[in-house]
Write a structure and sequence with these properties.
Belongs to the LysR transcriptional regulatory family. Keywords: DNA-binding, Transcription, Transcription regulation. It is a single chain. 43% of the residues lie in helices and 22% in strands. The chain is built from 10 helices and 13 strands. The strands form 3 sheets. A 6-stranded mixed β-sheet has the order 8-12-7-11-9-10. Strands 4-3-5-13-6 form a 5-stranded mixed β-sheet, with helices on both faces. Strands 1-2 form a two-stranded antiparallel ribbon. β3, α5 and β4 form a beta-alpha-beta unit.
């Protein structure tokens, strides 16, 4: 058994077929199939249930899958650590980001980081917080930029300042008050548009205030909420930092001053893996 075999095994398990895995690995099917057979022979057990269309893991395969992830992660970390000794501050940061952090990251941090470390490149993986936590655990990314709430266990976390949610809409919905803040009771009669990730936060806040909101649209991207609000379809509930993503002079922003609706952006990385030199510099930039 070797690292390459384990990487092949992980890819087959995740792809669900030899054909799909071979495409991902840019190799032909026969040698990949042969490697999996050799692995099963060496371990003396069946790792796959081979169906007509899909391959699934046996119980032994599931055990190996989790062990192989750790072994491959440690191997990658060792390679990064040794490579760092020779190459210094260059290479690629595998970074996961949520949609609602883009403006903050670009405005405050990345340009400065690029100026300091011009030989560092990025490979971005975009998704929601929970998807990025999974990618961190699997070793696909080294650092993730996520938003609270999330489970911190097993991660080093560096937080930006807390920020409120804001209600964003046209005059039709938010033009009756000159106040820059708005209460939940004022939002019960307008069609609300929000990112599904914030549903529990929002519904719990309304419930605590004994209010029932009028939900118009739930979606999977905070930017979508903003675009629908700009189209005059309702009021978007989004973190304040994302409002510049779609500048529109017809949109009105009002802070929802409810403590339970404050969130933070965080840069996180695994406690149990080596963080590359360039990764460490990125975290230092984020802290500053």
């Amino acid at each position: 058994m070797n690292i390459k075999q384990l990487q092949y095994f992980l890819t087959v398990a995740e792809a669900g077929s030899i054909t799909a895995a071979a495409k991902r690995l840019h190799i032909s099917q026969p040698p990949l199939s042969n490697q999996m057979q050799l692995l099963e022979k060496e371990l003396g057990t069946k790792l796959f249930e081979r169906g007509s269309r899909k391959i699934t893991l046996t119980y032994a395969g599931q055990i190996l899958y989790h062990r192989a992830q750790t072994i491959v992660d440690l191997s990658s970390a060792a390679i990064r650590e040794i490579t760092d000794l020779g190459t210094g501050l260059q290479g690629t940061i595998h970074l996961g980001t949520i949609s609602s952090c883009g403006v903050v990251l670009l405005d405050r941090h990345l340009k400065h980081f690029h100026n300091q470390y011009p030989d560092v490149n990025f490979e971005l993986y975009e998704g929601n917080t929970f998807q990025l936590l999974e990618k961190l655990k699997m070793g696909t990314i080294e650092i993730a930029i996520v938003r609270t709430p999330f489970h911190e266990e097993g991660f080093h976390c560096v937080y930006l300042e807390e920020e409120p949610m804001v209600a964003v809409g046209t005059k039709e919905y938010l033009g009756n008050s000159t106040d820059d803040k708005i209460g939940l009771e004022q939002l019960t009669d307008v069609p609300l548009i929000y990112y599904r990730r914030f549903e529990n936060l929002l519904m719990n806040s309304f419930r605590d205030a004994s209010l029932v909101p009028k939900v118009y649209c739930k979606n999977d991207d905070a930017r979508t909420s903003l675009m629908w609000a700009a189209a005059g379809l309702g009021v978007a509930i989004i973190p304040r930092s994302i409002t510049p993503a779609i500048p529109d002079p017809n949109l009105i922003n009002k802070i929802i001053d409810v403590p339970t609706l404050y969130t933070k952006i965080a840069a996180i990385y695994r406690k149990d893996l080596y963080l590359s030199n360039i990764g460490q510099r990125f975290i230092q930039m984020f802290e500053s």
